[in-house]
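Per reviewer request, we include the raw input and output of the structure prediction for the construct analysed in the revised manuscript.
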Amino acid sequence: MSMSNYNSPLEAFLYWEANTPDCILFEQPINGEIIEFSYVRVGQEARKIAAHLQSYDLPKGSHIAILSKNCAHWLIADLAIMMAGYVSVPIYASLNPHTIHQVLVHSDSKVVIVGKLDDFEYQISGVRNIDVISIDVYGDSHGVLWGDIVASAMPLKEIHQWQPEDVMTIVYTSGTTGEPKGVMHTFGNLMTSIDITINAIKLPNNLHLFSYLPLANLAERLIASAAVVVGAKIFFITSKETFVNDIVHCQPKVLLSVPMVWMKLQDHILENMSQIKLNILLNIPFLKEVFRRKIKAKLGLNSTFFIFTATAPMPISLTNWYRKLGIDIFQGYGTTEDCCISHFNLPDNHKIGTVGKPLDNVQVKLSPEGEILVKNTCLMKGYYKDPEMTASAFTEDGYFKTGDIGEYDSEGYLTIIGRIKDQFKTDKGKYIFPESLELELLKNIDIKRVCVVGSGAPAPIALIILSEQGKMKARDMLILSIEESLNKMKPLFETYEHIAKVVIMKEDWNIENGLTTPTLKLKRNSIERINRPYYKNWSNTPYDIIFE
């Protein structure tokens, strides 16, 4: 059966279940053990959960939420929801109670399946007035227990048949610029996106994948669904702390990541070896390849043939740093609304610093303001319960307005300049696109993260989080390093764009303090709101580099 004949990930699963029932689909670490889930075991559990969902006597097409970190049970729940004839609503496992409740209410979810979480006792206040199924193997015991259902329920006998135009899922965006929006995608959209991805990457059958980015994010879910389509095996992360050990165990063939992860892995390498020693080893011909293989083995990437990154700009310097280690990272670009099918760098067409060329079936044009407008064969059906916002998201001729500003070079590669909503105006009336400035600063390996701000200030201010290498530098050497970066940038930008002040921040930006999204994008509005009261003092200080 060819992949193009599947109407849904569920159909693909049923094919492999029938033909390779004893093959392992999921490997799930639980309490120090790795539990294997064969296709037949996954099918049995999914059918029992599906039968229980139907016992609530909900109309077909009702919405069922999944609140969990990545785990085998997340994808089993997803299959169960499809089997029962319902629509899934994934919720990021790191959200606070207010946002969880907001998504549950707005999505009209009737049941929530609660799985692997770090602090559900804190989050439980957001889960109210709704039926709960708890995946008790991860320690929670609210509502009906998954284990009891699997132990006693009769499996579903008649699996729901879906059509390509039916809504499969409502994906709530991670909310960098405001309240989350529910993006509706059909089965046809998901399968088209999966088909294009498999063909672009040349994804073979029987491969290992490593799942750790949130499955509530559409890109990770597409890769997981593509794995099911090609009959792959998926290994799930134990925790953030065990990331490197888990990936070494998994030995993934394909890896989806985000720039922040590569920055953390870079720190991990440089904690054990200085950049100077690294440079020496990479410049000795007979040691270079041996050393490269050793580094790849330590990172679990010896078997990986395709690594790609998205969701945020990948600094050119970081991509080049990994390339010297023999690790090529391909950057892509897509949105939840276009089902992640937009642009990608691929092995035969790769230009560092860009997000690549349009994928198959993608039409692109730029508005007069430079906004990237995308049309493909898997655009969202719309925003749930918001026809006005849906209408405003498209041009009259059906292109999705991405909100990103971009430009093409002479070879057809796209570079993202920034978000329309991220631009700000200085008190001199000049508009600044922060991302271009940030990418230049990130060429300095002493800098891990940067957020350029300055709405209402005389000139742009760069807020900086130091890398591990930057933290270890003497203050005077660090100042010289940053000043050198600022001087290199000056010829590249207009005078009004020059960064006037650099502020070294004490505290990192992360999910826990609410300054990044679950996919590790900066929440600029939140960072601006916290730091705006200091703009005047920073701008008036005689020092160009300020230590908070």
